[in-house]
């Protein structure tokens, strides 16, 4: 018997567009971030199960000790890590895009150390105190250091502008760190107050959220619409001018937002390197070079990285904890070396 029924052809699988891939990656990263948030709140010297963490968050009980630990210590600390990680992730991607340098990072280029240097000077000679005063000092220091590193890096005969900029940043960071040490060790009171802040950590820093949050949120909101501009700048200056973009003004605006985010993060917790570097490359690996997607994803990955590093730092030793800046360096240093040794550096 001959089958005369019409042949039903199998429809081709839907083509995954760049938009659908970006949406999937951002959604997945948000789910991972939610899991890291729960782990950051639940893990520490006092173990609190994930189920109890969720129950306390949904129904706070002021009388229970676990609720007190969560709402007065771990939740503010986690929220601070979320804010700082997102700011560093966005700052790293913006710096890489505006300098066309895949090795750019606020810590690697010495911008964070420059911000820290002006904060120390303000404390020593201007009697500045409080997170808001630290922020304005950090903003000035980050801006001046960025300009200094750019001028030195673009005039260094290092074979390429990529290597020249990194060498200039490392040299400036080393000088700034040495000056900070010389200034701080001369004053025991200042040394005691800056001992923890200058290392880059979240412990005891939750109280700065209220004062730093407006600057960090403003920087993130200013960064989000820059994806299209960064895509056009990545096509080259001539093409960007042909599309009506004022190249000099656009690059200056992007750099200003990156410096703002770096200053807010540094004023909050001190210098923390490699978060922006790793987050930007992970985001680009997941969604490609389209900055409309890689920019928000870099913010999310930066928050995941910083919170995961902070949580791991609480667990690696039995008594006490390791600063988050040390933990990010453990991850970021091998990543930076691997990236620098690649002959085909990732295009930004």
From TrEMBL:
One term under GO cellular component: plasma membrane
Biological process annotations from GO: siderophore-iron import into cell
Membrane-spanning ranges: 24-45, 79-100, 133-153, 165-185, 212-234, 254-283, 322-340
UniProtKB keywords: Cell membrane, Membrane, Transmembrane, Transmembrane helix, Transport
Localization: Cell membrane
Positions of region (Disordered): 1-22
Membrane topology summary: Multi-pass membrane protein
UniProt-listed Pfam families: FecCD
GO terms assigned for molecular function: transmembrane transporter activity
Family matches, as InterPro entries: ABC_BtuC-like, ABC_transptr_permease_BtuC
Family statement: Belongs to the binding-protein-dependent transport system permease family. FecCD subfamily.
Designated name of the protein: Iron ABC transporter
Protein species of origin: Streptomyces uncialis
Lineage: Bacteria, Bacillati, Actinomycetota, Actinomycetes, Kitasatosporales
């Amino acid at each position: 018997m001959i089958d005369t029924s019409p042949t039903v052809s199998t429809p081709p699988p839907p083509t995954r567009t760049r938009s659908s891939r970006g949406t999937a990656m951002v959604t997945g990263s948000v789910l991972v971030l939610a899991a890291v948030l729960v782990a950051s709140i639940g893990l520490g010297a006092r173990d609190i199960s994930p189920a109890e963490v969720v129950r306390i968050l949904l129904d706070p009980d002021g009388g229970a000790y676990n609720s007190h630990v969560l709402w007065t210590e771990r939740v503010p600390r986690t929220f601070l890590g979320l804010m700082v990680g997102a700011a560093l992730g966005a700052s790293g991607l913006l710096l890489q895009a505006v300098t066309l340098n895949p090795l750019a990072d606020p810590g690697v280029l010495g911008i964070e150390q420059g911000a820290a240097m002006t904060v120390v000077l303000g404390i020593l000679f201007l009697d500045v105190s409080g997170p808001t005063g630290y922020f304005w000092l950090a903003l000035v220091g980050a801006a001046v250091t960025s300009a200094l590193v750019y001028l030195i890096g673009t005039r260094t005969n290092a074979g390429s502008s990529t290597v020249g900029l990194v060498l200039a940043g490392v040299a400036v960071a080393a000088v700034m760190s040495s000056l900070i040490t010389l200034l701080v060790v001369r004053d025991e009171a200042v040394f005691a107050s800056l001992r923890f802040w200058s290392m880059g950590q979240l412990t005891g820093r939750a109280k700065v959220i209220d004062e730093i949050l407006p600057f960090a949120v403003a920087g993130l909101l200013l960064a989000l619409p820059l994806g299209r501009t960064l895509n056009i700048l990545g096509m080259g200056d001539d093409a960007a001018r042909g599309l009506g973009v004022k190249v000099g003004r656009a690059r200056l605006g992007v750099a200003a937002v990156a410096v703002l985010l770096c200053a807010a993060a540094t004023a909050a917790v001190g210098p923390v390197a490699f978060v922006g570097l790793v987050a930007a490359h992970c985001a680009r690996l997941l969604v490609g070079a389209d900055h409309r997607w890689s920019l928000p994803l870099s913010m999310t990955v930066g928050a995941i990285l910083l919170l995961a590093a902070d949580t791991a730092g609480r667990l690696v030793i039995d008594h006490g904890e390791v600063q988050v800046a040390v933990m990010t360096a453990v991850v970021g240093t091998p990543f930076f070396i691997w990236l620098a040794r690649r002959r085909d550096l990732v295009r930004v």
